[in-house]
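TA notes. Do not distribute before section.
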Amino acid sequence: MTSKGPKDIREAVLKAALPDIEREGFSDQVLTCAGKKAGFKPIEVNSAFPHGAASLVEEFSHWADARMTSRLKNAKEKGMTARITAAVRVRIEAMAPHKEAARRAAAFLALPNHAPLGAKLLYRTVDAIWRAAGDRSTDFSFYTKRATLAGVYGATVLYWLGDESEGNDATWKFLDHRIKDVMSFEKFKKSAREAMEKLPDPFGLFSGSRPRN
């Protein structure tokens, strides 16, 4: 039998964990039970999820990012505004079958001790969205674009979590309005700088993903 690598283990355990997450939330106990259901030894699960429940939340976020990126490979929207809007929508739709898990993840990341992880995952998501939309910037706008979209994406997800409209129509209208508010260059630049000024040591936080010329 071929042994599975950490990536395969994380994917299998997350899949096994989702039903329990939607009932009980993200916890070390849920992770342990999912590992058993997926047929892995505790040492394998601990290695693949070194930070326990936090690593499980991280895997859920990466899973949704990957689904968004895959679904956008053949996107036909023209213009950056349309592509960014489509990417945000597809990222949210990727979580739709597991909306309660998304709600549980948001609650987990809202805890003060999980704020650094929440910031890291939010940055990775908005970076993936810009890249999927075709952004190739390498100057300061690389950061300002991501800081601004972080506000739009975060607000839209929170709106979606409470949206009970048919087809989530209210969420998509909310998204359209927020995108229009920030995508003009001058508003974009001003709001992004203000957002960056409020973040502690943003370049330290983002240095691991800084693009190179």
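Switch to the second chain here.
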Amino acid sequence: MDNQLSTEMFYGMILTGAKQVIINEGELNQLNVFPVADRDTGTNLASMMRYIVDNLSLTREPQELFHQLSQHGLVGCSGNSGLIFSQFFYGLTQHKLTSKTFVKLQEFAFMIMSGYKSAYASVSNPEHGTILTVMERWASSYKELISHTRTTLVDSFQKSVDKAKEALKDTMNQLEILRQHHVVDAGAQGFIHFIEGMLLYLKADSGLRHKMLEERQESNAKVMINHTFEDVAKLPNHRYCFEMVLKTVPEAINVLEQNREYLENLGDSMVIGHAQQMEKLHIHTDSPDLISQHLANFGEVLYQKADDMVMQYNIANTPHNDTAIVIDSMADVPSDWIAKNNIFTFPLQVKINNNSFLDKFAISFRETIVHINDKKTRVGTSAPSAAIVSRGLHFLGQHYKSLIVIPVAKSLSSTYDVILTQVKKITECSVQVVDSCLISGGLGLLVVYANQLVQSKQYSLNEIVKKIEKAKQNIRFLVLVNSLDELIKSGRLSKPVGVMAKLLRLKPIVKLDNKGKPKIIAVAFSKSGGWKKLTKIVNTLQESNTIKTWAIVHSSSENEAQSFKHYIVQETAIKPLYITEASSVGVAHTGRDGMAVAYSTDEIHL
């Protein structure tokens, strides 16, 4: 019938609208100058739409379809515009339908107005000239069209889209920063692409609609690459665009709203989203760890994302090499060096009971140790989210000609496989993935060496990869552990060995071979004894000209690490390349108060 929409029709319209956003990812990134010119609005919206396309399934009742859309939108969304978009979907669920199998046009008008109101309420300081302006124009014009004129389904939708497009053009006259750069709002343009896609499906005949659904997977849609970006805005006020999804208990209502004052003191650009028993936070902050640990007291942390906006800005707006180095958080290297060199990092996940925290971004090794010491707490680790890896690679693909990804040893983590799976979908640039066969400081040294090669601008991509493959054979990692408990729990050492070490109160020195397998090579009865033995090993390596570069990684205090450095320098007269803290994932497997040395036979410079 011409005055109602079936569940099947909505399903097709949503998927087609989502794919229109994905196809235009590159264009949306180019428009992105508000609220932060980090050139990732297209990537954020496309990431959410890919999640919806991959997970949305056809249901019998439209209300159920909208609830499903709301949840997938909330979990898959990223960025300010993404979360606002997801709250539009949530608002669709707030209008009760009279039929279980279709939606009347009048009801659809109320639904989309409810969607707009929900999106508007999610923003702490809504402004004219954004995605909200276009949403409001579309919803109000549609409602006016069907209430005052006799119109067909297609005609009313077409005219309302036209009105929304007029509102889009006007956004550049409503925000000063858009007027300065003569662009429309990127989020608003993304919303237009979505409703235009819905209209395409609505206007198509049955044969074309069937083809549109057959072409459901658009994850590999080629993004237009443009390596030249103008300097459009100043650096952001805060470093991270942080997001998290919190699963709340049924009786908990508006947990994030109740913590608004606390959150506002830690950042800005805050947007709060809701779905059934789920809440999502978007905030620009320098303290994702404080926010994470605080909100974990009010529910289960299901998902997190932390984008380094300063790094994104630098990548998009300043000159850089054609090749980017990409790592995961198991590479223990100083964070200021990572920031200075724009080393893009995929965080592994630390699982604390039912909570999932981003390693190094949302949980430190010190916080992880507190949980390890609590016998009632389950501590585990997992690879980075495939969605986060995919999104990061798509973003980098728009700014670099090639990527070299160096993850933790394949034999020790599924991270390598997760990354490799997503790399196969990248068409924007060349990508090489290297199995480092290393962890922690050893992986850190390899990453520094790889960056050294890229910065020299003397080698081709293939030559760099060959040199990295050779260099990894010359890097080793030794760690003095306080206890073997965590290594045994993770299955990396046998239980009998651990029991014996515990009975004798031994402090073992563990060496990881080139396949990442741990082996006890020495033992001590005290911390000072362990320092002496570790130093003796380093000294022997130096005398045999085996060690050219070394670094310290610790899961203790900074003072303790500095004392260890002075001790080993005094004995050997060689200075470490750097001292850094261990990752939370590393500490989850080696425990507290560890002191480690990574070394290489190659000359490596920061």
